[in-house]
Amino acid sequence: MKKKQLIRFFIGIGVIVLLNFLANQFFFRIDLTEDQRYTIAPATERLLEKLEEPVFITVYLEGNDIPPAFKRLRTTVKEKLEEFTAYAGNNIRFRFEDITQETDKKKLNERIYNLIKKGIQPTNLVDKEGGSTVERLIIPGAMVSYEGKEAPVMLLRGNQRTKGLSSEQILNQSVENVEYELASAIRQLTNNERKRIGIIQGYGNLRPIQMADMITSLQKFYDVFLVPMQKQPELKGLDAIIVAKPDSAFSEEDKYKIDQFIVNGGKALFFVDALKSDTILRGESTLLIKNDLNLDDLFFRYGVRLNDNVIQDLTSSGAIPMTVGNMGSQPQVKLMPWRFFPLVNTFSKHPIVRNLDAVYLHYVGTIDTVKAVAIQKTPLMFTSPYSKVNAVPAQIDFNEARLNPDPRQYRAGPQSVAYLLEGKFHSLYANRITQVDPRFKMFKEYGNPSKIIICSDGDLPANEIDPKTGKPAALGYDQFMNTTFANKDFILHAVDYLIDENGVIAARAKEVVLRPLDKLKVQEERLQWQLINLVLPIVVIVILGLIRAYWRKRKYAV
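RESULT FIELD:
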């Protein structure tokens, strides 16, 4: 009997040793959660496995008195970093630090100031406890360091003011974005193979100072060049191009360059206005007319049509200052809703726009799709359901901001204002380039798969210029509403997807479903569930113990 037990014991030990050996040789992880919250994207895995030197991550979301919702975010960050170490090993090193425990106020203020300078913005939370108001300083950010370089990470993403969501929903979106934010910072610091982006110039496009924040933000990940189209024989050597708010017609020669760049697999991002302001009458109105860019046939061949109209949005729009009266001898200025400046807050589920804050647009038109063989068309952004579409020419009276709108006129429904097109594009110049044309040998009618994004607002990538200092403001910032919208995030995500759709942008597709408890039901059934969870297990154990004692007594009774 003892010999058999010893054999079983050693067999068990052998099985355990064998399993450990196999686990060390063949790495795998199993995520049994419904929403796969502990699974990281394949691109993130590759990024972590390629790390050659340690990446140090300091998380400042720490403290014993942070609210429960932020504890959930902190727990998610910790779990995600532990997942990172499973793939990167000792090349991911992280720690949590609570700088609010600093007793010296001067040192604390210095540290907070330094974090703000580096891009990590603290936030003050006000709670009521025991009838009194308690203010807590929360720092929902992290600093990623690699070989002497640093990149800030804001873990709390989402502007409640622009999204119109509850605090719980905003925090849930932040939880969903943790992997992308951390992986994106690591990629920024470790990326040695930088793609090349060309910003098209020469057609009245935005000036560099008007795109300063976009250019600076893109330069963290890519090499960015200003490309004077008329002087460039071709666009080879670039991975993507950006056409930002042209106001004059493209020549056929330059349009051909763009066409062949896209057909050969180059990526493109177009921010174009279908309309332009022709005249401004005494500062009271403006006339919008068609903006002839000579790109309509190119877009039509690729699968979309920019319509000659302008959208008004009843429920989600920006504001402009208007004089509404006088107080004594001083004019009384008030911000009035300007429905020609939509705040786009409705998006598709594509990773480019998933969990995106509102995007601020100016005089935007509608986009329709047309037949294009083998081209997949994905709408990205929509105005609200309460939209009105105005045909051109349209005279826009600024006094309209003072008037109460008629809701019956705003029934056009959501209008698409940005499209992603993917596939093998058919050249606009098919059957036009003959054998006697010197371009014939290099011409391609069909080429490599590519992707382009077309947005019907040329102002989306434009940052404001401070009139006092002449310096550019943050992209998406509106001085009148004192709010920064998600224009920059949209561009960064769009470029990231265009250049590498299998990159870390794929992590933005992760969805963590909120499963809130029914508070009324919890209150009503509280005692019942307390008894089930606390008393029932004890009762079951006692019953099983009595049954076992009775069975042993019967079995061994003489």
